[in-house]
Design goal:
binds S-adenosylmethionine, single chain, 19% strand, two-stranded antiparallel sheet
């Protein structure tokens, strides 16, 4: 039997069956993007109809309810969040929570629109952002993103820095593509004072003729090769995420490694994701989900009912993802059909 709502509210925390406290919500605001990164999307994507995507009011109502039960950090993501029309409205709605019950409001972006929005993001309380960038070579940038211009991202990053927003670079490590740029990336981030996180490519969504197996680069190997060039010291920075961090001797930056494939760190996972259609995904690499859009659009659903459903939803959070590449059999295990661009990375 479900607990009564007032008892649920008294608990004021979301704790899953594996005793993990869920305090971090990633909200995807669109499945659309102005780039077509080869590891993320196929060249010809079919995007959702606008009516399928939650309105900002619906997103805010959900966020407010999640904040009530202990969410302390919200990351806005996508698709590309900054291409959604009126996106600053959502930041404006969430901003007042930063002075009471929310610790951080942040963003993951490909950076192409940052030059337009950096100052407004700062005014809306955003102090740190993640910018995804996989190469510093303009030709390769075009190859990876199919349609992007590196200079747009670089000027966006400069605009964020000028607006006093701290930038962390997220770079997907790709065999035979940016493998030879790893050191260059580290040096560039040291010079610019940006934290840097490398990510292993995950088997999510159809990417057409591209091969994930061919481009998978184990970060265990990357880290080993960096150790011969830099003095890395592992640090215990508990973000509840899949990244493990090191300090580079002689610099102030943090170097992160997100290794869902070569190393599983699910035991400390503190996050849940809501996609642009209002579906809650308990785990990036599993299919357990709950459709909040239906509940939000039901004229009889009260805020108390919504809170009760949220509280009960974490009971479904799985223990871990099942992603795995088997190179000997050229097989991908645990492939998830949804694209990362829908769920939000
Ligand atoms: N468009 C924004 C961006 O690129 O930062 C936000 C959404 S994007 C889906 C979020 C992150 O997911 C990016 O850092 C991207 O590199 C990463 N990503 C996308 N598909 C991935 C995959 N299959 N495996 C690993 N990372 C992926
Ligand atoms: Fe767009 Fe981000 Fe996916 Fe690249 S990784 S296609 S920028 S959503």
């Amino acid at each position: 039997m479900n607990k009564p709502v007032n008892k649920l509210l008294k608990d004021n925390t979301l704790v899953d069956p594996f005793n993990r406290h869920i305090t971090y919500l990633r909200l995807s605001v669109t499945d659309r993007c102005d780039l077509r990164c080869t590891y993320c999307m196929s060249e010809k994507m079919t995007f959702l109809n606008k009516t399928e995507i939650l309105t900002f009011e619906e997103m805010y109502r959900l966020c407010r309810s999640f904040i009530k039960v202990g969410i302390k950090k919200i990351r806005i993501t996508g698709g590309e969040p900054l291409i959604r029309k009126g996106i600053m409205d959502l930041f404006e709605m969430l901003k007042p929570h930063l002075s009471s019950d929310l610790n951080e409001l942040t963003l993951t972006t490909n950076g192409t629109q940052l030059h337009k929005y950096a100052n407004q993001l700062y005014s809306n309380g955003v102090r740190r952002i993640n910018v995804s960038l996989d190469t510093l070579d303009p030709t390769k940038f075009k190859l990876i993103t199919r349609i992007g211009k590196l200079e747009d991202v670089l000027s966006g990053i400069d605009a964020a820095r000028d607006a006093n927003i701290r930038v962390k670079i997220n770079c997907v490590a790709l065999k035979n593509i940016n493998e030879n740029e790893i050191e260059k990336f580290v040096n560039w981030c040291i010079e610019k004072d940006f934290d840097l996180t490398f990510i292993e490519t995950m088997p999510m969504g159809d990417i057409g003729n591209e091969s994930r197996l061919n481009h998978f680069l184990s970060l265990e190997e990357v880290k080993k090769s960096l150790t011969s060039k830099y003095k890395l010291e592992d640090i215990t920075l508990s973000t509840g995420g899949p990244a493990r961090y090191s300090k580079i001797e002689g610099s102030d930056i943090k170097l992160g490694f997100i290794t869902p494939l070569s190393h599983n760190f699910c035991s400390t996972c503190n996050r849940i994701r809501i996609d642009a259609t209002g579906v809650l995904h308990q785990c990036l690499g599993q299919s357990e989900s709950l459709d909040f859009r239906k509940i939000l659009r039901d004229p009889f659903s009260t805020n108390d009912k919504l809170l009760e459903i949220i509280k009960n939803s974490v009971k479904q959070k799985p223990e871990k993802h099942s992603f795995a590449y088997d190179f000997s059999k050229e097989e991908i295990k645990g492939q998830i059909n949804r694209h990362m661009s829908l769920t939000g990375g």
